Amino acid sequence: QIAEEDKGDEKQQDDWVYGENIVFCRDTFFCCDHRQSAPDAQEKQLNWEEEQKRRWEMRKGLFPQLPDDAVIFGNFNQLYKIDPTTFRTWLRILAHVPNAVLWLLRFPDLGESHLRKTALDWAGAEVASRVLFTDVAPKSTHIARARVCDLVLDTPECNAHTTAADVLWSGTPLLTLPRHRYKMCSRMAASILKGVLPKSAQGKRAAEELIVGSDE
């Protein structure tokens, strides 16, 4: 009888621990609110022609030296997320797309010199010259600048999390590789993409093109 009473006391004491209602999300547990980080979220929705004009002006302001036909690949993660296999893959992409550049952030500053040297050693001077670095921008500017990219390349070992949501909020596509099934951090961006894309034939096709199965 004493044991039963003890169990009852334990149950009563534990009742307060999970007082919240459980929310089941459709595709991803990663919930965010664009209005917290982007002051322009309340502005008038631009049509695509207006949005293209805004993107082009922003691109010219950031990279005035780039030719009009340049393709801008980008990654805004902290540089420690770029493992050697991923960086080698990105350099191979640059080698195969001669009018492309790879835009990274000085995040941290010390990483820039190491990555530049690695790019020079692995891919040569011409490819290395197309790896561009800019300073980290304030949150609201950072999200807006993602519009300048043609495609954001994710880091497979540890995906973009908040950064992936920010990029997709900007309307720029993100390419990700869920390299490890057993690591949630390697599947994060794929789940965010699935939560963003519509449940339609177009959305399914976009998911197949943006969530890839290998480095190749």
What's the structural blueprint in terms of helices and strands?
Elements: H1 2-14, H2 34-37, H3 48-62, E1 71-74, H4 84-96, E2 100-105, H5 109-123, H6 125-128, E3 131-134, H7 139-145, E4 151-153, H8 162-169, E5 174-175, H9 188-196, H10 201-210
Parallel strand pairs: 1-2, 1-4, 2-3, 4-5
Structure description:
This protein has 216 residues and is an alpha/beta fold. It contains ten helices and five strands. The chain has helices at 2-14, 34-37, 48-62, 84-96, 109-123, 125-128, 139-145, 162-169, 188-196, 201-210; strands at residues 71-74, 100-105, 131-134, 151-153, 174-175. It has a five-stranded parallel beta sheet with strand order 3-2-1-4-5. Helix 4 (84-96) links the parallel strand 1 (71-74) and strand 2. The relative contact order is 0.13.
